[in-house]
Specification:
With 52 residues, the protein is mainly alpha-helical. Helices cover 94% and strands 0% of the residues.
Length: 52
Amino acid sequence: MEAITGAITTAVTVAGECITFLTSQPLCLLLIGLGLIPVGLGIFKSAKRAAR
């Protein structure tokens, strides 16, 4: 059980470090933002359709 907990802790730590690194780089942050624009537009369109 301790091995599983340790592995999960390590995975969360690595994921956190990756997110910190990506958000500290302006170019990476720009590319992430550009990639999220279609997702936001899709959510907006579906919410607009649901409001009708």
